Amino acid sequence: MNYLVFFSLALLVMTGRTVTREKRKDMMDL
Fold first, then answer.
1. How far is CA 13 from the centre of its chain?
2. What is the pLDDT of residue 30?
3. What pLDDT sits at residue 28?
4. Distance from the CA of 13 to the CA of which of 4, 19, 20, 30 falls in 20 to 30 A?
5. How would DSSP label each residue in the chain?
6. Listed residue (23, 14, 20) closest to 6, CA to CA
7. Long-range CB contacts (within 8 A, 24+) of 23-29
8. Angle subtended at Cα 9 by Cα 2 and Cα 3, rounded to the nearest 5 degrees
């Protein structure tokens, strides 16, 4: 149960990082 929550949290962080990167790229382009 614990490792499951940790895995989901790690996945969320990874997706969040990718999203922030895309947003930063868009801002730089603008």
1. 4
2. 65
3. 74
4. 30
5. -HHHHHHHHHHHHHHHHHHHHHHHHHHHH-
6. 14
7. none
8. 20
Distance, in Å, from the CA atom of 30 to the CA atom of 11, rounded to the nearest integer, reads 29
Residues in Cβ contact with 10 at an 8 Å cutoff, skipping those fewer than 6 apart: none
- Tokens at residue 1, please? 């149960």
The C-alpha atoms of residue 17 and residue 11 are separated, in whole angstroms, by 10
The encoded tokens of residue 17 equal: 């990082």
| pLDDT tens digits, 1-30 | 689 999 999 999 989 888 888 877 777 776
